[in-house]
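Subject: Re: docking follow-up (adenosine-5'-diphosphate)

Dear J.,

Thanks for your patience while I sorted out the input files. As discussed at Tuesday's group meeting, I've set up the holo structure prediction with adenosine-5'-diphosphate included as the bound ligand rather than trying to dock it afterwards. The sequence and the ligand SMILES I used are pasted below, so you can double-check that they match what you have on your end before we go further.
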Amino acid sequence: MRCGKCWASSEQRRSQASSSWRSLENERAWFSLRFSQQKKSRGVSNGGSVGATPHVVFVLGGPGSGKGTQCALIAEEEALGYAHLSAGDLLRAERNSGSELAGMINEFIREGKIVPAEVTVGLLRKAMEKSGKSRFLIDGFPRNPDNLAAWEASTAGGAVVVDFALFLDCPEEIMTERIMERGRSSGRIDDNEEAIRKRLVTYRESTMPIIKEFEARGKLREVNSDQTIEEVAVEVRRHISAIA
Ligand SMILES: Nc1ncnc2c1ncn2[C@@H]1O[C@H](COP(=O)(O)OP(=O)(O)O)[C@@H](O)[C@H]1O
Ligand SMILES: Nc1ccn([C@H]2C[C@H](O)[C@@H](COP(=O)(O)OP(=O)(O)O)O2)c(=O)n1
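The structure tokens for the complex came back this morning:
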């Protein structure tokens, strides 16, 4: 099933991808280079082991659905070998660094909007490289068609395997309660009622079509996250453990 709203035409998808194309050429070169270097150093052939090719699980869900909490639990289990990369954390760190992108990132976050994909893909690329790991939980990405198109352009040629997208499904009232509670101590400019309303609109209009896209590709795993943290963790772990 394809969502007509966000995947209306291949023309639109092409233009979304091409708007980020220039900077993505570098991203693509990086993924391909890293993959071929790994193959050389490990002496594996094409289609080699999980260790040779970066493997990714995208973790999606609304604000407050528990993405960060669950990713942290998986990453704590060292034997599983996952690095947890939160797109939101990477964007907040870039904003706090005072780089030339800081003001722009801050405005998007304040308005509950999605930062242009080339910025986020660039931050993810650097974080993947720095981690030294080959398994990644990418939390809060891809969050809209621009994110997904940019990711796919940058990893063209199978340099990175996306195992599946894990969807933490939670009612909006519960997510709102959790974020209001988190806002008492998080210090985040978007953990307040007005920003939550905007983030939920973005979630419904921009992220849900991506979740449906992964479902259409047979690459969605779904967990009801309106349960205790421990109950959710059991189901999340079962999906992660099922990866070959
Ligand atoms: N299953 C759960 N039940 C109750 N509270 C939860 C649960 N999962 C997460 N939380 C709490 O809800 C808030 C949002 O969780 P978080 O993992 O930061 O969500 P997200 O990364 O999806 O925004 C945090 O304060 C967290 O401690
Ligand atoms: N892929 C992404 C992820 C987050 N962002 C921005 C916009 C989001 O509202 C904020 C916060 O994202 P984050 O994943 O940390 O927030 P939640 O965990 O969903 O509460 O960051 C983005 O622009 N692009």
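A couple of observations from a first look. Residues 63-64, 67-68, 86-88, 91, 108-109, 112, 114-115, 120, 140-141, 143, 147, 190, 199 surround deoxycytidine diphosphate (ligand 2) (CB under 6 Å). Residues 1-22, 39-50 have pLDDT under 50 and may be disordered.

Let me know if you'd like me to rerun anything.

Best regards,
T.
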